[in-house]
Automatic annotation (TrEMBL):
Name recorded for this polypeptide: GDP-L-fucose synthase
Binding site for NADP(+): 28-34, 122-125, 157, 180-183, 196
Pathway(s): Nucleotide-sugar biosynthesis; GDP-L-fucose biosynthesis via de novo pathway; GDP-L-fucose from GDP-alpha-D-mannose: step 2/2
Keywords carried by this UniProt record: Isomerase, Multifunctional enzyme, NADP, Oxidoreductase
GO biological process: 'de novo' GDP-L-fucose biosynthetic process
A Pfam cross-reference name: Epimerase
Keyword Translocase: no
Organism: Rhodospirillum rubrum (strain ATCC 11170 / ATH 1.1.1 / DSM 467 / LMG 4362 / NCIMB 8255 / S1)
Site for Important for catalytic activity, residues: S124, C126
Signal peptide: none
Length: 329
């Protein structure tokens, strides 16, 4: 068993973290969030470390410990996780709880062992109770039952928040947690079965237009409300937090823009140029009726998003069109 020891590079908690000259590991660099964080870090004076799944399976504890020891990053952004939309979360409960607990536990513990100075853990808005007061504040965590469709993933994410806090408390590590709202953007997962609503609807609506179909099927009632944040805005917020945030509490990262799923489909149709109608498959789950983040704490620190929903969807659609051939393979 590893003996507790202070992290060799540990700094006093509550201080800014200077990225200059640092080695930052973006775990999950090929994903939606990881890719955006790599793009954003290119504007900082730091070295970005990346390793693909083929060279490091993050569910393997010894491999993660060996990689961390060999590469000794100064900071880690944890953008690696098993992620999916409502159907994937609902149908693959064992994979979601197992892989997420394994990946995050391995990274946080190995970071502590290797003396990593700063770790940024990423959770999700689904950590909050299903019927919680809106907008959802950070202190609403664990105040009620979770949404059943994604509780397995949510439990793993809540464990990640507590793990970062525990390593702060016992070992004095500057490990922090950010909770993003629903994300979208270049590099998203456009898989119709496994992905989230925004990329799925972009693809469905685009294909209906190209094939001349008069209707598109939406899952559920179309009534649930979701808040969407453009992924490059998230990446900017994460770099901001990496540098400026050092506290026990997790912090929400949202856009403040809320929309029903039906209105989202109509907005996407406007961007794509589709004039057909929408029908609703109510055998599919709605999930949480509403999940709007209270991002007041982050705003008070001085950070705000830059991209409105329509512009973000237009940029994502351009990316989708540019990459459509590759996505089909
Ligand atoms: N997308 C969203 O709407 C939201 C995402 N988040 C959080 O943001 C983070 C990133 O999500 P997102 O970018 O959307 O997810 P993606 O699925 O786009 O990316 C996840 C990345 O993690 C990697 N990964 C997963 N498991 C392993 C493993 N065992 N070994 C090595 N690499 C692995 C994947 O590698 P590979 O490419 O090989 O599969 C991929 O690069 C997650 O923590 C998620 O919970 C939070 C709120 C909303
Ligand atoms: C980020 C967040 O993402 C997940 O939660 P979610 O927000 O419920 O996920 P979603 O994006 O898949 O769906 C949002 C809404 O949209 C409706 N909907 C309509 N038509 C399609 C459709 O075609 N695909 C999808 N996926 N949804 C559709 C769908 O029925 C639901 O009402 C978590 O599991 C968890 O991963 C998490 O934290």
């Amino acid at each position: 068993m590893t003996e507790p020891r202070p992290a060799p590079t540990s700094r006093p908690l509550g201080q800014p973290f200077d990225l200059t000259g640092k080695r930052v590991w973006v775990a999950g660099h090929r994903g939606l969030v990881g890719g955006a964080v790599v793009r954003r870090l290119a504007r900082e004076d730091c070295a970005v470390l990346c390793v693909g799944r083929e060279d490091l399976d993050l569910t393997r504890q010894q491999a993660v410990e060996a990689w961390m020891e060999a590469n000794r990053p100064d900071a880690v952004v944890m953008a690696a996780a098993l992620v999916g939309g409502i159907k994937a979360n609902d149908r693959r409960s064992a994979e979601f709880i197992h892989q997420n607990l394994a990946v995050q536990t391995n990274i946080i513990h190995a970071a502590w062992q290797a003396g990593v100075g700063k770790v940024l853990f990423l959770g999700s808005s689904c950590i909050y109770p299903r019927d919680v007061a809106q907008p959802m504040r950070e202190d609403a965590l664990l105040s009620g039952p979770l949404e059943p469709t994604n509780q397995w993933y949510a439990i793993a994410k809540i464990a990640g928040i507590r793990m970062a806090q525990a390593y702060r408390r016992q070992y004095g590590c500057d490990y922090i947690s950010a909770m993003p709202t629903n994300l979208y953007g270049p590099g998203d997962n456009f898989d119709l079965d496994g992905g989230h609503v925004l990329p799925a609807l972009l693809r469905k609506i685009h294909e209906a237009k190209v094939e001349g179909r008069g209707e598109v099927v939406l899952w559920g009632s179309g009534a649930p409300l979701r808040e969407f944040l453009y992924v490059d805005d998230l990446a900017d917020a994460l770099v901001f937090l990496l540098k400026a945030y050092s506290a026990d509490d997790h912090i929400n990262v949202g856009s403040g823009e809320e929309i029903t799923i039906k209105a989202l489909a109509e907005t996407i149709a406007g961007v794509v140029g589709y004039e057909g109608r929408f029908v609703f498959d109510t055998t599919m789950p709605d999930g949480t009726p509403r999940k709007l983040m209270d991002s007041g704490r982050l705003a008070a620190l001085g950070w705000r998003p830059a991209t409105d929903l329509r512009s973000g969807i237009a940029a994502t659609y351009r990316w989708f069109l540019d990459n459509a051939e590759r996505l089909r393979q």
